[in-house]
Design a protein that fits this description.
This protein has about 425 residues and is an alpha+beta fold. About 40% of the residues lie in helices and about 10% in strands. Bound molecules: adenosine-5'-triphosphate and magnesium ion. Adenosine-5'-triphosphate binds near residues 10, 129, 141 and 155.
Length: about 425
């Protein structure tokens, strides 16, 4: 093993770029001083080499250099870490940020699904590495290492919430004694802080300002005192409910990583549209609960969007289509045909409009005026994206509403089209007060 250029340093050691093995593979080498390591546990790390997953940094070897008095961890070399990546000037598209969330949760899921699950214990932006290529990929690093580093050597020295360790810990970790058995729930809590950090342009959920000291942050974590920061690209409805749940003080009440993966924050546009489709099927039924659901939806959205009709959020081109649909519905009514007019104050009608029109625009493909493909993309490929970006609150609100206790009987029935969205989620996983 040869190590050359330093690529970073943290609380436990320095990282160098180097080469490894007979084929001189380019790797990253983390060097830790002998007195920082719990020697009796070092050998346990060998097992970590067997963890292979696209969202987890590969470990190639663990070595002790007696002569230099240092331990070396040889691993996959990444381009940068999440903290530095977010600091870069370029504004990241919403889709890219969502991908990062999904990558990190897939990595956590893989650690949790191992025969002997690994609790990371030190999830924070500097332990999430970013690799380039055609697509940006996030990978979890330093998993399984926190157990071998002596506690007093951890980097709890900085004032910047982007660094340091204790500002990213769950309340039970901060309070816990050495003997406390830490379970995967601690990673879910820290993951919540990382999600907040990504979505709010590097703000901390438990810090009022960027310069808040780590002592204040840890006090706020223990006192459950969150600060809601604005996100440049996400609506608060998309992430606040989620964060309240993953950062619940009681670890057993937090969603599991499998449940986290079922939350709309992790969905792509297609899955969100499938959800809208399923909700439309329910709304088109003529049953008493459908009326109740409509009313509930309108009550919720009257506080989110105030009184503005949803039609006012459409761009002029789509608004024009909307008005044409309304006009022809009016004509149909006069001819006594089935009227299909949408009420632009009724959220259920917005959902139906999105659903119905997608098929309309698809079937009209080729006959559509250029203006429509400007908005929805050729062949309507940006159709779903268009609506979900204009109405980002729609899917998360529907999800939160439908997973409430009063809808359990509906969504937990295997015959319900919504069943697949809720079957892997405990009834109270995403409830908060
Ligand atoms: N495999 C890697 N490839 C490329 N850069 C890395 C790699 N591992 C770490 N780094 C860089 O080095 C920095 C320091 O890493 P290190 O793990 O030592 O410190 P830390 O994550 O800040 O703290 P801790 O010691 O608690 O993990 C990382 O934040 C990252 O920028
Ligand atoms: Mg690290």
């Amino acid at each position: 093993m040869n190590s050359e250029k330093e690529v970073g340093h943290g609380g436990s050691g320095k990282i160098f770029k180097g080469t490894y093995g007979s084929d001189n593979q380019i790797v990253a080498v983390k060097i830790i001083q002998e007195d920082s390591v719990q020697k009796d546990k070092w050998k346990e790390l060998d097992i970590l080499r067997e963890v292979v997953h696209p969202n987890i940094v590969r470990y190639f070897g663990f070595e002790f250099n007696k002569l230099k008095g240092v331990y070396a961890i040889v691993m996959e070399l990444a381009e940068t870490d999440l903290d530095k990546w977010l600091k870069e000037d370029m504004q990241k598209p919403k889709k890219m940020l969502k991908n990062i969330l999904v990558h990190v949760s897939r990595g956590l899921q893989a650690l949790d699904n191992l025969e002997t699950p690994i609790v990371h214990r030190d999830m924070k932006p500097s332990n999430i590495l970013i690799c380039g290529g055609t697509e940006v990929v996030a990978k979890i690093a330093d998993f399984g290492l926190s157990r071998i580093i002596l506690p007093n050597k951890a980097g709890i020295t900085t004032q910047n919430p982007g660094l340091g360790t204790s500002g990213w810990m769950s309340p039970e970790q901060l309070q816990g004694s050495e003997t406390l058995k830490l379970t995967t729930e601690v990673d879910i809590f820290s993951f919540g802080l990382v999600v907040n950090f990504i979505l709010t342009d590097r703000k901390h959920l438990y810090a009022k300002s960027q310069s808040e000291s780590e002592v204040v942050i840890t006090c706020n974590i223990l006192l459950d005192k969150r600060t809601w920061h604005q996100s440049p690209q996400f609506s608060p409805v998309e992430y606040e409910g989620f964060l309240k749940c993953v950062t619940k003080k009681d670890p057993s009440k937090r969603p599991t990583i499998n449940e986290v993966m079922c939350h709309p924050l992790m969905w792509d546009y297609e899955k969100s549209f499938q959800f809208i489709e399923a909700v439309t099927t329910i709304l088109k039924r003529n049953e008493p609960f459908t009326e109740y659901l409509r009313k509930k939806l309108n009550d919720i959205f009257s506080t989110i969007w105030k009184t503005a009709p949803w039609e006012s959020k459409l761009c002029p081109i789509v608004k024009n289509y909307f008005l044409e649909v309304q006009k022809s519905a009016e004509a149909n009514r006069e001819e006594n045909k089935h009227p299909e007019k949408y009420d632009s104050k009724d959220i259920a009608d917005l959902i139906e409009f999105i659903y119905d029109r997608r098929y309309y625009f698809r079937s009209q493909e080729g006959n559509l005026e250029l203006t429509a493909s400007n908005v929805f993309g050729e062949k309507g490929t940006r159709y779903v994206e268009y609506f979900l970006e204009r109405f980002p609150e729609l899917v998360p609100t529907l999800f939160e509403l439908l997973q409430q206790v009063e809808y359990q009987e509906l969504v937990r029935n295997q015959l319900c089209p919504l069943y697949c969205f809720f079957s892997d989620v405990r009834p109270d996983a995403f409830t908060f007060c």
